[in-house]
Amino acid sequence: MASSGLRSPHGAFRGIVVGTSCLRGSRTDLSRALSTAPIVANLGEATDGKRAVLQLQDGTKLEGYSFGAATDVAGEVVFTTGMVGYPESLTDPSYKGQILVSTYPMVGNYGVPDRAARDANGLPTYFESERVQIEGLVAQDYSTHHSHWAATSSLGAWLKESGVPGIAGVDTRLLTKRIRDNGALLGKIIFDGGSAIARGPYVDPNRRNLVGKCPRVSRARTVLAIARVCSLLTAVSRRT
Length: 240
What we know:
Elements: E1 2-7, E2 13-18, H1 20-24, H2 27-36, E3 39-40, H3 44-47, E4 51-56, E5 61-66, E6 73-80, H4 86-90, E7 98-102, E8 106-107, E9 112-113, E10 136-138, E11 141-142, E12 151-153, H5 155-162, E13 166-168, H6 172-182, E14 185-190, H7 196-199, H8 216-239
Parallel strand pairs: 6-7, 7-10, 8-11, 10-13
Antiparallel strand pairs: 1-2, 2-3, 4-5, 4-14, 5-13, 6-14, 9-12
């Protein structure tokens, strides 16, 4: 017997056990196996079984499962195409005030490294700043089991610790196409339809002074980077 897993339209996983005879059989046989297989949600302990809705300003509503903090947020919905590096993306101050959509289908599979680790300059070793900067995270699938030598916690635990919501089971392909065709959209991640954020207006972070909210550590990193570039330019000019 061979085990396989296909995603259901509701963001859960359809647990299937398909025999070799079925795999060699007709498409109808395989379709029958898929339609009768039990639906098993790949939620795990990190999701708490809670549902959330990503609501866009154009009226689009996408439902998913929570794997972060269960709190309503509002911001600008943008996407990132990075296949790896979510610890860096989530702490990047340039995403301040934004709800980040990952186009890569899975997040959380290698966990989160040590938040207290520092380099020789006293800056975070694995992050772009001291804390999570995004308003919320949206993914197609969240891995409830992580594995990496540097991991000290799961992505879900980090988001909860930071008070940032994360939802999975969302059709990120549809969402990315919508953003690509219309530009960045304002949106909300909603758990409680009666909250002030859910009932209030959409929030445009571009109307706020985000530079003033930039953490000092990111400014220090920028100054350090400029100093290195200046040193390289000086060295090149001397050689030429």
